[in-house]
């Protein structure tokens, strides 16, 4: 069974410059002009778009990963300037280079349809990059890793591959979310220290 295409955008974060840049898909998800997202917004600008109930969640972990490096997967709501609420699953990795400068990169996935029609505990765990865990989680992690390599694929090839990646990620997310206990604290339990995207 095929599902509706999933919107997946790419981002990068230059921590020292305090600029988060994203592609046109990310701009759309956050309700921003593509040019503004390409030029970059500050972390405070981005956090101001988070739903008030999600803004303060796990701030210590988010700050630690952004400053020291490491992996993360966070699911949160974004309120666009037009007032639209979207569920966003952000997965990424911050890495410190030889000069001590931390940079991050990753993907954002629009989970709105899944979250609106599913009262389950969420699906962020399927993109937590701990390298271990159940086989479905490891499979999803590898698919996201492959997605991140798409920049090296020709546009015609990627046009054919992208829908397959989107449907596979969507189905893996649905299956993994269905196996999670209703009372699990996915983000806090699954986000131990580990390097990621």
Question: What would you say this structure looks like, in words?
Answer:
The protein has 9 helices and 5 strands, in the order ββαααααβββαααα. It is an alpha+beta fold. It has a single domain, classed as Beta-Lactamase. A 5-stranded antiparallel sheet has the order 2-1-5-4-3. The two termini are 29 Å apart.
Low-confidence sequence ranges: 119-132, 181-197
What class, by secondary structure content?
A: alpha+beta
Mean pLDDT: 75
Beta-strand portion reads 15-25%
**CATH fold category name:** Beta-Lactamase
The CATH architecture comes to 2-Layer Sandwich
Largest sheet, if any? Answer: 5 strands, antiparallel
Strand order within the widest beta sheet: 2-1-5-4-3
Helix content: 40-55%
- Tally the helices: what do you get? 9
Instruction: Give the topology string: H per helix, E per strand.
Output: EEHHHHHEEEHHHH
CATH superfamily: PAS domain
Number of strand segments:
5
Kindly provide the radius of gyration, computed on alpha-carbon positions and rounded to a whole number of angstroms. Answer: 16 Å
The CATH class, by name, is: Alpha Beta
């Amino acid at each position: 069974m095929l599902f509706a295409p999933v919107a997946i955008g790419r981002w990068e974060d230059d921590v020292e410059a305090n600029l988060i840049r994203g592609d046109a898909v990310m701009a759309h998800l956050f309700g921003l002009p593509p040019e503004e997202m390409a030029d970059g917004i500050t972390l405070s600008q981005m956090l101001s778009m988070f739903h008030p109930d999600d803004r303060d969640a796990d701030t210590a972990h988010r700050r630690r990963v952004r400053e020291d490096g490491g992996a993360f997967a966070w699911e949160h709501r974004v309120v666009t300037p037009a007032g639209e609420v979207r569920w966003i699953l952000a997965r990424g990795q911050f890495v410190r280079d030889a000069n001590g400068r931390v940079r991050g990169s990753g993907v954002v996935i629009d989970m709105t349809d899944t979250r609106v029609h599913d009262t389950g505990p969420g699906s962020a765990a399927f993109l937590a990059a701990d390298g271990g865990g159940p086989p479905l989680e490891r499979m999803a992690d590898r698919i996201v890793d492959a997605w991140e390599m798409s920049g090296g694929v020709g546009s015609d090839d990627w046009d054919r591959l992208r829908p397959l990646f989107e449907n596979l990620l969507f189905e893996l997310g649905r299956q993994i979310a269905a196996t999670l206990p209703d009372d699990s604290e996915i983000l806090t339990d699954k986000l131990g220290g580990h390097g990621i995207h």
